[in-house]
Automatic annotation (TrEMBL):
Record's compositionally biased regions (Basic and acidic residues): 125-141
Protein name (record): Zinc knuckle CX2CX4HX4C domain-containing protein
Annotated segments matching region Disordered: 114-153
Domain of life: Eukaryota
Organism: Sesamum alatum
């Protein structure tokens, strides 16, 4: 009844010669301890209920999330809500860059400035380092389109 590799085995296993494991407990969907874990991708969206199948039986179960990341519907990214989106709110993006500069981060911008005036030419002249389009002198555009690169020291 002793096994050199595994130590002592039970009498039942030694006599029968096969490994016997106890049957698994029955699955009860009513139990509060029944908590299946699943992974959802962003493409599937947030489910409110799912179908759980055992054999041919399918039970519709309400989904309770333990944790939800912030999700932006405007730019389809995780990590921020739609009201905090820098793609949707360009002014917030510029303000964040200004705050980063004040905190000591070096921020580089590649600005693609388009003139808001109808009929303006894209090849503006430069006067004292300031761009002009026709009759209007531009020192700052209201909402420039920026690509931001942040370098932390």
């Amino acid at each position: 009844m002793a096994d050199a590799a595994g130590g002592l085995r039970s009498y039942r296993v030694a006599v029968a010669g096969v490994t016997v494991s106890p049957p698994p407990p029955p699955i009860s969907f009513d139990s509060s301890s029944f908590r299946p874990m699943g992974t959802l991708t962003r493409d599937q969206g947030m489910k409110t209920e799912i179908g759980l199948g055992i054999g041919t039986d399918v039970v519709i179960q309400r989904v309770v999330y333990e944790w939800l990341p912030k999700y932006c519907g405007a730019c389809k990214h995780l990590g921020h809500a739609e009201e905090e989106c820098y793609e949707k709110h360009k002014a917030k993006r510029a303000q964040r860059a200004l705050d980063d500069r004040r905190r000591g981060k070096s921020v580089a911008f590649a600005e693609h400035v388009t003139c808001p005036h109808p009929g303006a030419s894209t090849s503006g002249a430069k006067e004292d380092g300031k761009e002009t389009c026709g009759d209007v002198l531009h020192t700052d555009t209201p909402e420039p389109v920026m690509e931001e690169v942040v370098h932390t020291p």
